[in-house]
Amino acid sequence: MDLRVTPLGVQSQAVDKLREAIVSGHFQPGQRLVEAELCRLLGISRGSVREALRRLEGERLVVITPNRGPSVTELSWEEAVQIYDVRRLLEGEAAALAARRATAAQREEMEAALEAFEAAVAAEDALGRVGATACFYDLVLAACGNAVVDEILRGLHARINLLRSRSMSRQGRAPESARELRAILAAIRDRAPAAARKAAMLHVQAACAAAKEAMAERRVA
Amino acid sequence: MDLRVTPLGVQSQAVDKLREAIVSGHFQPGQRLVEAELCRLLGISRGSVREALRRLEGERLVVITPNRGPSVTELSWEEAVQIYDVRRLLEGEAAALAARRATAAQREEMEAALEAFEAAVAAEDALGRVGATACFYDLVLAACGNAVVDEILRGLHARINLLRSRSMSRQGRAPESARELRAILAAIRDRAPAAARKAAMLHVQAACAAAKEAMAERRVA
DNA sequence: ATCATAGGATTGTCAAACAATCCGAAGCTA
DNA sequence: TAGCTTCGGATTGTTTGACAATCCTATGAT
């Protein structure tokens, strides 16, 4: 077991901070990220900033246009649909694998996370909801045992967040969402891969539909 | 239509050359990539080399260990299996979408590419085979119309290539492979998404099994 | 009003430097 | 000889400064 504690280089911190700033909407999609500006904000040199930006480019959170530099990725609705398509497949797979492989302890943790989510829904605690959702997802992805699925889905979630910064609301859908997650967990507990896959795909499908509606509202607003 | 011709900055070229060197096996998996060395080989500055390496890290072709620097990714068999799992899903999806969306012209091109592949198989032209395969894949991915699937699969193919550098042989499987591809194309021509998905998944499954055998041979050798 | 031009802002790239870290090899000890 | 310590070279992480190439904008000319 490796208990190394790395002093966490300047760049890694920069990447984390920038990613956080982007997914949280502090930097709006389309906004240009001027290197000199980021140097000032982060207190690091241009070389490090550029490397950090390259990493975020790899995560598709930033687009670097030649001779124009970096800006926050703008996600078209068309591309968002494509992402949801892939998510449907991969989250279905992840759920199926989790149903087959999750240990008893992991099932317990999922149950706890889901209860936390339901509590947050009842309390209309938006922040708690996203935290609990993330926790639930982490557990499923850990249980599925496929690091590649994990890695890709993390990336896709971050990218979808680029949309959500504005259409966050939709809290009306939370109860449905809770029911969908519960269905997934039920299938995982029953060790029913096919059912888990179906439930997870349904959940993504619903999320996509909800995003579409939110998008339409935004469009007219 | 944008017919801009970009002078193609130093870094982009560096990334391309390094990627080529890696997937072609010129740099072996696990080999360390010393920055100063790459500066000499590429004739560019350290800053540019480092940015190029960051990009390749994003493509998972290079691993950068803190305070040890970059080296060519070593793909474990375990991880390769996970990649094949995802490929099965996504190539199935791509084939299904292509079956639904491909234009007549695209079907013709696929037919041509497949015939080229079969010709290369008959002529035992290994290089021609990989070229024709790549071409066929490009056409299917273009026809499927999902840029996210395209992008992810390209990445996964490159990563699987990290394995193949040694286990390239397996030319005995080429005729089977040709039959599998033909089955995919047949389904696409019939506009039968379900059949196309099934055929594509079968193809990946077979490729995975073949890789496993090649791996086992290597292991004992 | 339209076009050309100039100037500022920004990126792309290079060079040089230095501290921190890692790794191997020499030397010392038992 | 085996094992431990120490030392020094190699390599990375990061900074600073510089300059050409490119883009954008505002100014000025027709």
Number of DSSP helices of chain A? 9
- DSSP, total strands of chain A: 2
The interface involving the most residues is between: A-B, 25 and 25 residues
Oligomer: homodimer
- Sheet having the most strands of chain A: 2 strands, antiparallel
Shape of chain A: globular
| Share of β-strand residues of chain A | under 5%
Structural class of chain A: mainly alpha
Summed up, the domain count of chain A is 2
Strand order of the largest sheet of chain A: 1-2
End-to-end gap of chain A: 54 Å
- Low-confidence sequence ranges of chain A: none
Level-2 CATH architecture of the largest domain in chain A:
Up-down Bundle
CATH class of the largest domain in chain A: Mainly Alpha
Calculate Rg of chain A over CA atoms: 19 Å
